[in-house]
């Protein structure tokens, strides 16, 4: 099991490039199920979840070719024959986004068998909203032995109001609706850029969709979709992580190949903390503005402050003068990084969904454990300013969503290296 070894103290200087968004790429790969033709996706990140999705599609009978380097992170997917429309547990147990194949599978084949998904243990992300929506569209769904089985002759359009805002639920049912008979009206939809990105691909494939990016989406079902070529959005969470890396180290960092409009909530908070931000068309420069100042955050659905940036922001808050209140409104179990940050010298207390960070506290090196994807990133950020050499265990969480993180950070001055676990190997 790999580890990261990080020696703190270096300001990050130079330019760092953002990869494509994993959380856009996964639903777009699932959307290829909806057509027999080839779907070509560009700007695909080279992360573990993408490889898991490739294995999942291939296990169903799809032809999937992943290309990197000169191929510009491009993937070719052709689902001409779906010989086995089953999302097997052995493949999906590490990835929550596996539920995204449920909608397109039943829309395309009339049957789907999907293992209950896994992923980061950050709190309840129930699949019941997917089930309720598909049942409203005429599917019969049963659950047994850890699998959901859905059947229908053909999905029919429906009026669906989400009980709560759900990104994967919006994406899954949006894909299903493209091949449903008649019109489907969705209300209380997620507005995240990843939903808009998926809708752009579906429209390129011949879907009739209006309102993506708003809380109300209208879909007129079509009989068939065709192939398309689509470029995946930049990863706004990776970009945000790099912005905080530049800010926490007091560096001068240009975060390139990003979409600044997707980062407005984070940029606003960083400016409140005293960070100097210069926004370009596809890049953001972050510079030290002197001592960091505390600024409270409260996570919300997009366009609010993203829950996927909460842990990283908390690392920054440990280095800000004053008291920072962090309120987590999306997931009930997303403070697992607090214990590890406190091991490094942070002063953070948690009560319910609120964490109170007392700053500024000097951080010291320690052996710490990565508990989930974004918690892992927060520990890397803390290690960049800690005194001494910090060892981060279980960095496979990081590999699920960050492409070559240690190489990118090393390229702008960080002292970070990957170390294989030599113990316990047979």
Describe the structure.
By secondary structure, the chain is α/β, with parallel strands linked by helices. It folds into 2 domains: 3-19 and 234-419, Enolpyruvate transferase domain (UDP-n-acetylglucosamine1-carboxyvinyl-transferase, Chain, Alpha-beta prism), CATH 3.65.10.10; 22-231, UDP-n-acetylglucosamine1-carboxyvinyl-transferase, Chain. Helices cover 30% and strands 25% of the residues. It is built from 14 helices and 24 strands. The strands form 6 sheets. It has a 4-stranded mixed sheet. The longest helix is centred in the middle third of the chain and has 13 residues, at 236-248. It is elongated, with a radius of gyration of 22 Å.
Attribute tags:
single chain, four-stranded mixed β-sheet, UDP-n-acetylglucosamine1-carboxyvinyl-transferase, Chain, alpha/beta, 30% helix
Q: What is the domain total for the residues?
A: 2
Please, what is the oligomeric state?
Answer: single chain
CATH class of the largest domain: Alpha Beta
How helix-rich are the residues, as a percent range? 25-40%
Task: Tell me the CATH architecture of the largest domain.
Answer: Alpha-beta prism
Sheet with most strands: 4 strands, mixed
Distance between the termini: 12 Å
Count the E strands: 24
Shape: elongated
According to CATH, the homologous superfamily of the largest domain is Enolpyruvate transferase domain
Could you name the ranges where pLDDT drops below 50 across 5 or more consecutive residues? 119-125, 422-426
Assess the beta-strand content as a share of residues: 25-35%
Query: Mean of the pLDDT scores?
Result: 92
Cα Rg: 22 Å
Q: Name the strands of the widest sheet in spatial order.
A: 22-23-1-24
Here the CATH topology of the largest domain equals: UDP-n-acetylglucosamine1-carboxyvinyl-transferase, Chain
Number of helices: 14
Q: What is the structural class?
A: alpha/beta
């Amino acid at each position: 099991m790999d580890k990261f070894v990080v020696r703190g103290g270096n300001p990050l200087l130079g330019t760092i490039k953002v990869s494509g968004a994993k959380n856009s790429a996964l639903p777009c790969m699932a959307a290829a199920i909806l057509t027999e033709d080839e779907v070509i996706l560009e700007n695909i990140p080279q992360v573990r979840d993408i490889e898991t999705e490739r294995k999942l599609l291939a296990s169903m009978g799809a032809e999937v070719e992943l290309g990197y380097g000169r191929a510009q992170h491009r993937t070719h997917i052709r689902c001409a024959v779906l010989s086995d429309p089953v999302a097997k547990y052995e493949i999906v147990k590490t990835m929550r986004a596996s539920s995204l194949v449920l909608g397109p599978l039943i829309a395309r084949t009339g049957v789907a068998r999907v293992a209950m998904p896994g992923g980061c243990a950050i709190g309840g992300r129930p699949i019941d909203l997917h089930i309720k929506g598909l049942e409203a569209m005429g599917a019969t769904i049963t659950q047994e032995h850890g699998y959901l089985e859905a059947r229908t002759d053909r999905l029919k359009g429906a009026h669906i109001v989400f009980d709560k805002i759900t990104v994967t639920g919006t994406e899954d049912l949006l894909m299903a609706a493209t091949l449903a008979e008649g019109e489907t009206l969705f209300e209380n939809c997620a507005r995240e850029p990843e939903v808009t990105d998926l809708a752009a691909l579906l429209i390129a494939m011949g879907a009739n969709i209006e309102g993506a990016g708003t809380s109300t989406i209208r879909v007129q079902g079509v009989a068939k979709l065709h192939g398309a070529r689509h470029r995946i959005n930049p990863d706004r969470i990776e970009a945000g992580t790099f912005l905080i890396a530049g800010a926490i180290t007091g560096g001068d960092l240009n975060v390139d190949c990003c979409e600044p409009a997707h980062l407005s909530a984070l940029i606003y908070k960083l400016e409140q903390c005293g960070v100097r931000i210069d926004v370009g068309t596809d890049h953001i420069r972050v510079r030290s503005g002197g001592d960091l100042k505390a600024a409270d955050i409260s996570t919300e659905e997009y366009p609010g402050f993203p829950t996927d940036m909460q842990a990283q922001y908390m690392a920054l808050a440990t280095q800000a003068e004053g008291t920072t209140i962090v309120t987590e409104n999306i997931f009930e179990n997303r403070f697992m990084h607090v214990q590890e940050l406190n091991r490094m010298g942070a002063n953070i207390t948690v009560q319910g969904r609120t964490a109170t960070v007392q700053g500024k506290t000097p951080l010291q090196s320690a052996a710490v454990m990565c508990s989930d994807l974004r918690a892992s990133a927060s520990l890397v950020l803390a290690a960049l300013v800690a005194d001494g050499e910090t060892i981060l265990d279980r960095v496979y969480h990081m590999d699920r969503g960050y492409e070559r993180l240690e190489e990118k950070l090393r390229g702008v001055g960080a002292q970070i290296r990957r170390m294989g676990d030599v113990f316990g190997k047979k």
